[in-house]
């Protein structure tokens, strides 16, 4: 089974290019179906596994199939984003086999983030896996990769101090706002969106007891739920231009494919404010606030990439912790590659497929028989007993027959194998 990954992130691609490849959660399922169909044709292997991780910092495609198709994956993603293959290639990274595992483990552990040791990425990765599962795009190989990623991340966080000195994006935004405004308790703040990032940012700013907080969101119900936690007011997105001038700080992070706050709206707001400064943080990819706003006098606009410079602090202090985390990741990569190699050797995968097919056949036969008996009015308990007995007999017939065949040495070997496979630890043949 070939495993590969293609991605762009904050280290390889500018913000505007990353915005072309950002996928909203409702886009994931149809995108995965399209990708699987394209790769199935390219690899001639119908069982292609795929998953997409899309955050403000990165978009990554993980794949597993009988044959590698890195170039085809690159071409497909370039087409979906409306750029040439050469442009995407110059800003992306292509990974195979062990490199994929190492990268996934580092991402899950927060070692490949703008904020070293960030915790949000693990939840985002789990959401990506859940979306792939619901779309029917995840198989045993990628499932193993991601489950091991989560386990490694958990070990890194429990065994090291990777997150002890990290500054989150939200905390960085508060720090920048504090440099502009003398007293954050006197400012009015508008949060646009109601997702995880806005929730985190609201929590950090609310700790400074601002004069007023407003939540603007497309779905009023979700906005009201978040607002209730902080004693904030709520407004629909359509009313933002009318009320922009009332706010000293604007923090935005939505899944909109187009800017929500335009240059003209900010210009009018600044005029009404008599050019009192406006602090803005655009955490969205693609952008929520038009980039030209940054050129306006008295408008202070920061993007996720701008905040990266704020959070890159105390790196030397954390180097020993990073090295400790990398050691844990090395061990995880080795274990995953051993598992992958074992599947590829000795016909393990075909055997697993045959066993699954055979047990499915037995199960279908017994269920069909049980339904016929129930239709005739047979007792439910008796039917269930017959079903369980029939399944057990089918599954054990070959094993029990093997125990009576061969030479004494062969039978002894069979006894040992059957004991290891079927008996619980500590039990002996003939015991329950």
Short description:
It is an enzyme of class 1 (oxidoreductase). With 432 residues, this protein is of the alpha/beta class.
Structural descriptors:
single chain, about 425 residues, alpha/beta, Beta Polymerase, domain 2, Rossmann fold, Methane Monooxygenase Hydroxylase, Chain G, domain 1, 3 domains, 6-stranded parallel beta sheet, 4-stranded antiparallel beta sheet, 17 helices, about 55% helix, elongated, Glutamyl-tRNA reductase
Description:
- With 432 residues, the chain is α/β, with parallel strands linked by helices.
- The chain folds into three domains: 2-165 and 315-344, Glutamyl-tRNA reductase, N-terminal domain (Beta Polymerase, domain 2), CATH 3.30.460; 169-311, Rossmann fold; 348-422, Methane Monooxygenase Hydroxylase, Chain G, domain 1.
- Helices cover 56% and strands 13% of the residues.
- It contains 17 helices and ten strands.
- A six-stranded parallel sheet has the order 7-6-5-8-9-10. The protein has a four-stranded antiparallel sheet with strand order 2-3-1-4, sandwiched between helices.
- α5 (98-108) crosses α7, α5 crosses α14 (315-344) and α8 packs across α9 (196-206).
* Beta-strand content bin: 5-15%
Write down the overall geometry. elongated
**Would you report the number of β strands?**
10
The domain tally reads 3
CATH class of the largest domain: Alpha Beta
Low-pLDDT stretches are none
The biggest sheet amounts to:
6 strands, parallel
The order of strands across the largest sheet is 7-6-5-8-9-10
Question: Average pLDDT value?
Answer: 87
Q: What's the CATH topology label of the largest domain?
A: Beta Polymerase, domain 2
Number of helices: 17
Radius of gyration: 28 Å
Topology pattern, helix = H, strand = E: EHHEEHHEHHHHEHEHEHEHEEHHHHH
Helix content: 55-70%
Class computed from helices, strands and strand pairing = alpha/beta
Using the 3D structure, state the CATH architecture of the largest domain: 2-Layer Sandwich
For the record, give the distance between the C-alpha atoms at the N and C termini, rounded to a whole number.
39 Å
């Amino acid at each position: 089974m070939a495993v590969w990954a293609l991605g762009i992130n904050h280290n390889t691609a500018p913000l505007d290019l990353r915005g072309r490849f950002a996928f909203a959660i409702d886009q994931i399922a149809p995108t995965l179906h399209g990708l699987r169909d394209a790769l199935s044709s390219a690899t001639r292997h119908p069982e292609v596994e795929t998953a997409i991780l899309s955050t403000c910092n990165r978009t990554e495609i993980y794949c597993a199939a009988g044959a590698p198709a890195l170039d085809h994956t690159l071409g497909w993603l370039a087409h979906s984003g409306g750029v040439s293959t050469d442009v995407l290639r110059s800003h992306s990274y292509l990974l195979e086999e062990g490199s994929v595992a190492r990268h996934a483990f580092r991402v899950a552990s927060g070692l490949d983030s703008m904020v070293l040791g960030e915790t949000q990425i693990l939840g985002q990765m789990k959401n990506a896996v859940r979306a792939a599962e619901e779309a029917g795009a995840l198989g045993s190989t990628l499932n193993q990769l991601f489950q091991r990623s989560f386990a490694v991340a958990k070990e890194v966080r429990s065994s090291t101090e990777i997150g002890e000195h990290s500054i989150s994006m939200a905390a960085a935004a508060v720090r920048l706002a504090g440099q502009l405004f003398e007293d954050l308790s006197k400012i009015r703040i508008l949060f646009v969106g109601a997702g995880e990032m806005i929730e985190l940012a609201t929590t950090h700013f609310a700790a400074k007891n601002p004069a007023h907080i407003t939540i603007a969101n497309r779905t009023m119900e979700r906005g009201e739920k978040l607002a209730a936690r902080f004693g904030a007011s709520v407004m629909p997105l359509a009313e933002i231009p009318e009320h922009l001038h009332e706010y000293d700080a604007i923090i935005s992070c939505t899944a909109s494919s187009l800017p929500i706050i335009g240059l003209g709206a900010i210009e009018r707001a600044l005029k009404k404010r008599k050019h009192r400064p406006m602090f803005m943080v655009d955490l969205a990819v693609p952008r929520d606030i038009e980039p030209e706003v940054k050129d306006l006098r008295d408008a202070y606009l920061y993007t996720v990439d701008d905040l990266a410079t704020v959070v890159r602090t105390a790196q030397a202090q954390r180097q020993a912790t990073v090295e400790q985390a990398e050691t844990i990741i090395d061990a995880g990569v080795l274990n995953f590659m051993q598992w992958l190699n074992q599947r590829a050797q000795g016909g393990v995968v075909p055997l697993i497929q045959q066993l699954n097919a055979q047990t499915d056949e037995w199960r279908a036969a017994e269920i069909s028989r049980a339904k016929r008996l129930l239709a005739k009015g047979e007792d439910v308990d008796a039917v269930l007993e017959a079903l369980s007995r029939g399944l057990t007999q089918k599954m054990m017939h070959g094993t029990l027959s093997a125990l009576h065949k061969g030479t004494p040495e062969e039978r002894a070997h069979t006894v040992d194998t059957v004991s290891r496979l079927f008996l619980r630890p500590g039990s002996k043949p003939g015991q329950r």
